[in-house]
Every structure is written in structure tokens, then in C-alpha cells.
């Protein structure tokens, strides 16, 4: 028996942004959980008024949060620490440039 996997992608370019419901669906999350991520400061909407809008960077971050929670069975506080460390490593790599 063979198993097929269907992968669906979403490309968000430039100034395009998703509303809360479309963003939650694209991330595979509940809208309430996205609200909790914003409340915890883990996600930042690109536009807050009149309604939240999220860009591609927020989508990638939300997917990273979801993977960290799933893979490490981490709570939001632990995910926040992991994200801070990942962001710091990326910042330092940018500072030192390419390593040969």
C-alpha cells in the first residue's frame, strides 16, 4: 500500500497580508491560539487596526512556534525562550557574515 502526501503552499509577497482567520488556517492553528500568541508577544500583527493582518514573516514564525511546541512538547514560555535564542543566533550569524 502506498501513501500519498499532498503539500499545499501559500506565497505572501511584498505588502500582502492575511487576516486573522486566513492566517490561522494557513498555520494550521485555531484563531484563539493565534490571539494567545499575540498576547504573549510571540507574534506581532503587521497591521492592528481595524483588524489584525499578518505577513509572511509572521506566518513563518507561527509555523516555527507550532513545530517547537510539537517537537519539544513545550509551553509558550519555553517557546519564547527558544525563539529568543534562535533570533540571537541568527543576529550573530548576520554580524559575522559567511563562514568559509
Summarize this, please?
The chain has 100 residues and is mostly helical. It contains 4 helices and 2 strands, in the order βααβαα.
Describe the structure.
With 100 residues, the chain is mainly alpha-helical. It contains four helices and two strands, in the order βααβαα. The chain has helices spanning 20-27, 31-39, 56-72, 76-96; strands at residues 18-19, 53-54. It has a two-stranded antiparallel ribbon. The termini are far apart. The model has no long low-confidence stretch (mean pLDDT 88).
Relevant terms:
single chain, 100 residues, mainly alpha, two-stranded antiparallel ribbon, 4 helices
Task: State the strand order across the main sheet.
Answer: 1-2
Following the backbone from N to C, one meets helices and strands in this order, namely EHHEHH
User: On the 0-100 scale, what is the average pLDDT?
Assistant: 88
First-residue to last-residue Cα separation: 45 Å
Structural class: mainly alpha
Q: What's the count of strands? A: 2
* Overall body shape: globular
Radius of gyration: 16 Å
* Helical segment count: 4
Helix content: 55-70%
Spans of at least 5 consecutive residues whose pLDDT stays below 50 are none
Write the layout of secondary structure elements.
Elements: E1 18-19, H1 20-27, H2 31-39, E2 53-54, H3 56-72, H4 76-96
Antiparallel strand pairs: 1-2
Amino acid at each position: 500500500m502506498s501513501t500519498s502526501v499532498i503539500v499545499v503552499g501559500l506565497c505572501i509577497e511584498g505588502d500582502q497580508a492575511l487576516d486573522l482567520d486566513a492566517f490561522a488556517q494557513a498555520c494550521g492553528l485555531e484563531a484563539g491560539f493565534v490571539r494567545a500568541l499575540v498576547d504573549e508577544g510571540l507574534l506581532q500583527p503587521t497591521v492592528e487596526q481595524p483588524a489584525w493582518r499578518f505577513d509572511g514573516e509572521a506566518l513563518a514564525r507561527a509555523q516555527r512556534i507550532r513545530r517547537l511546541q510539537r517537537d519539544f512538547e513545550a509551553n509558550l514560555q519555553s517557546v519564547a525562550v527558544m525563539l529568543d535564542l534562535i533570533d540571537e543566533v541568527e543576529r550573530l550569524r548576520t554580524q559575522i557574515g559567511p563562514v568559509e
